[in-house]
Amino acid sequence: MATTIHEPPKIDLDRLPGDGSGNGWRNLVPSDGDMRLVKDSSPPPASTGIWVGLAAITMTFAAFTSALVVRQGNSTDWHHFTLPPILYFNSLIIIASSVTLDMARRRMAAFMSSAKSQAGAPAGLLYVTLALGLVFVAGQTWAWLQLKSQGFGLASNISYSFFYVLTVTHAVHVLGGLGGLVRVIWKLNNLGLKRSTLNATSLYWHFMGALWLYLLLLLWMKL
Amino acid sequence: MHDMSAHAVGHGAPTSFIRKHVFSIDHKVIGKQYYALALVAAVVGMFLSWLMRIHLGWGSFAIPGLHLLSSSGAPGDVMTPEYYLQLMTMHGTIMVFFVLTTAPFAAFGNFFLPIQTGAEDMPFPHFNMMSFWVTFVAFMVMVAAFFVPDGPSLGGWTQYAPLSAIGAVGGPGQGWGVVFWAASIGIFCIGQLLGSLNFITTTLDMRCKGMSLMRLPISAWGWFITSVMGLTAFAVLMPACILLILDHVAGTSFFVPTGLVIGDHVLPHSGGSTLLWQHLFWFFGHPEVYIAIVPGMGIVSHVLITNMRRPMLSHRVLIYSMAALAVLSYMVYGHHMFVSGMNPVSSLAFSFPTLVITIPSTIIVLIWLGSLYGSKLRINSASLFSLGFVSMFISGGVSGFFLAQPSLDIMLHATYFVVGHFHLVMGVAAMFGIFAGTYFWFPKMTGRMMSETLGKAHFILSFIGAYCIFMPFHYLGIAGNVRRYQAFTDDYLIPLVPVHKFITIAALVTGFAQLIFIYNLIYSRFKGAHAPNDNPWQGTSLEWSTATPPPHNNFGATMPIVYHDPYQYSVEGAAADYIMQTSTEKVHSPDEEK
Fold it and tell me: Do B204 and A48 touch (CB under 8 A)?
């Protein structure tokens, strides 16, 4: 059997992509001495982490959805009711917040690439997004109070149970997103904001909006 | 080595005791904390099993001091039937969640995954710290159930509805006991989700230069695959726990059907689905089996390779098979519900993938056995427990073939056959994986060696003891011995009581044998011989190329660059019989030879 012995690879750090330290890059250095550097643009952990987190949230709401479908399918006591109209207003609010956040993110990207030198405008849009998020949560609270005042609580009927469980769980996640926005604003004001942090927060917020639209559709169809 | 002094770990080394040893964000400290928690939980869980076994062997025997644990559950130090079920519930829950999930996955994974990938730490160290402390709180809440009125739940670790959802009318512990159980498990889920987030991101994004996915050791693959399962499984169990708690405290009717009569009273709930709980629980529950065992597969593969001085027959096929187990684990969960009255077509649909999942399991076993065949295995405590793992996995797995078939499962499902099956394949095997990992990595974690003499004595007693305990369970099951009974008074069960007495004696002896391990662990930690060097087993992966114990950022001023596959042993022409991943030594390339 022929034996091939290879010289060990030699690493030329100057050739490494990125900032030269290799941060954010993985270079497959084959043991056969071939110095082809396989560029693997590893994203910052925040980018991967947010997708992993969103996968977990997706599974949670998938479980709630399947529970709703199974429970309704077996049910003879399901009480259909009309969703509080404010939910539609809240939907517009959370869509608007996604728009303002994306505008802020784009301006921030331009600022970070030195295309623009003003950080004030993106910060203003972030405050608007934060305010819209608070309005959304307040609107959801209004919807719960409205149902409660009509005598429909968590245990009034299983349909109300699912309504409260889904909307409250979503609102808790939105509050987490608001916390993320506060963190982004704080970091921006202290000049410590990474683009990956902003992108991850934006992705999370957009996901919350999309998730809400899905939940609204589900509730509208099933309740 | 690549000079990374200018890019040191993202957080500085802690200086205060609190930040260094308590609320630490260092993955190595967190790994040790998880290990300590699992050790305490294992002692508690084993103690509970002793109490149960004594009761099953000698039902009227007064266990001195038992009334101190529960005056109503053990009046006169003899446990009531209900208290037996409460202890059984806590034993199963604590063992599955706080030992079998915590030790092989969270403890060893936290300590070694970043090191084996060449990372300085997990990417989200504060989440990692939260992961442990949330799990710790979950354990405290679970144990606190012993001290609420009526004690812990008696519904079993599966908490089947409607018993688990109807409240205190269901029996002792079915009120606050269930609420504490569900709250604890819900909190536990949060901890494991945070941990899985870190594990996945570490594996995908934090690998050092040259560390391709296929250059990761099999142990790292085990933790990575498990974290993916954990992310999806615990994210489903958590909402199930929320709904269960709401049925208790808010009066909802997710799981309680209409017209359920308990104690001559019709319960106020209506329309709930009892099977809904089973679907949600087992969608988590079956992957949980693999969450417990796949890290062990990775650990013992790593240990065996190091001691065989040669790689497995196929690195890739072993990894792909572990990944196949993870994927299939979500498709088979219905086999836990064959006796739930499900449509026979559904049974068939779940039976087929259950039989299919034996294929990757068999491939893994054949790779282990084929690799071991003809190898000059170094015999030490770690390799012995790895062999024990393989033995237990095969013995417990074979009974799975029978249970995968609905026609047989209907006969065996509620018997001790199932108890023997899952204790061997999931419980004892996973425990042996934990032991193998402990003996193997102890020098790296502490800088000291464990006693080999005590380790081998521990193995012999544990190996023989485990078979003495759990093999007779299969016989009992085939004889029709129903599980979850606290006494065997029926005519056909009375002749089986001597077998139970034998099992109880074996459990007590095997349990006491674990004291050897605990003594060895504690003594060696403080008085054990110092590890002769940073690589006492002549391993090749990155944990053996750093200092012992590893520095705060794992690799000091220079971060590793990986040049080799993880298991370069017995390489022709090499200076030694192993080539470390970071070595720049010339290497024979089998691929080139082809």
Answer: yes
Among A212, A192, A184, smallest CA distance to A127 is for A184
Task: Determine the 3-state secondary structure of A27 from DSSP.
Answer: strand
Report chain B residues whose CB lies below 8 A from the CB of A64: 239
Query: Can you tell me the distance from the alpha carbon of B91 to that of B152, in angstroms, rounded to the nearest whole number?
Result: 11
At residue B8, the pLDDT reads 39
- Residues of A with Cβ-Cβ distance to B234 under 8 angstroms: 56
Q: Let me know if B360 is exposed, middle or buried by CB neighbors in 10 A (0-12, 13-18, 19+).
A: buried
Tell the residue number behind the tokens 């209900």, with chain if given: B82
Give the minimum alpha-carbon distance from B572 to chain A in angstroms, rounded to a whole number: 9
CA-based nearest residue to B206, from A180, A50, A181, A45? A45
Taking only the tens place, the pLDDT of each residue in B241-285 is: 999 999 999 989 999 988 889 888 888 888 888 889 999 999 999
pLDDT in tens, A164-184: 999 999 999 999 999 999 998
The domain in which residue A124 lies consists of 82-222
**Token digits of residue B155:** 């519904």
How many Å lie between the alpha carbon of B117 and the closest alpha carbon of chain A?
12
CA distances from B570 to B375, B533, B580 (A): 11, 21, 12
* B17, part of any domain: no
Whether A24 is in a domain gets the answer no
A42 has pLDDT over 90: no
Helix (H, G, I), strand (E, B) or coil at B310: coil
**Residue A2 in 3-state DSSP?**
coil
According to the model, what pLDDT value does residue B266 have?
Answer: 87
CATH number at residue B425: 1.20.210.10
Closest by CA position to B124, among listed B140, B110, B137, B104: B110
Instruction: Indicate the pTM of the whole model.
Output: 0.90
Cβ neighbourhood burial of B525 (10 Å; 0-12, 13-18, 19+): middle
Q: Which of B121, B212, B277 has the highest number of chain A CBs within 10 A, making it the mutation to test binding with A?
A: B212
Is A19 a member of any domain? Answer: no
Q: Are B187 and B141 in contact (CB under 8 A)?
A: yes
Nearest residue, CB atoms, B201 vs list A1, A52, A155: A52
Structure tokens of B434?
């934990």
- pLDDT, residue B370, reads 96
Interface confidence (ipTM) of the complex: 0.89
Measured CA distances, B375 to B49, B306, B567 (Å)? 38, 11, 15
Number of structural domains, chain B? 1
CATH number at residue A182: 1.20.120.80
- Bridge partners of B482, per DSSP, are B415
- Determine the 3-state secondary structure of B530 from DSSP: strand
Highest mean pLDDT among A35-39, A70-74, B277-281: B277-281
Residue B208 lies in a domain: yes
Q: How many CB atoms lie within 10 A of CB A147?
A: 20
Over residues B370-401, the pLDDT tens digits come to 999 999 999 999 999 999 999 999 999 999 88
Structure confidence at residue B550 (pLDDT) = 93
Q: Is residue B2 part of a domain?
A: no
The residue range of the domain holding B145 is 28-257+270-593
Q: Structural domain tally of chain A?
A: 1
Q: Determine the Cα angle at A54 with ends A49 and A59, to 5°.
A: 130
Domain assignment present for A101: yes
Q: Which of A1, A59, A74 sits opposite B232 (nearest CB)?
A: A59
Q: Please give the residue that has the higher pLDDT: either A25 or B584.
A: B584
Q: pLDDT band for position A75 (50/70/90)? A: confident
Query: Is any Cβ of chain A less than 8 angstroms from the Cβ of B337?
Result: no
User: Is there a domain that residue B4 lies in?
Assistant: no
Q: Does residue A76 lie in a domain region? A: no
**Residues of chain B whose pLDDT is less than 50?**
1-8, 592-594
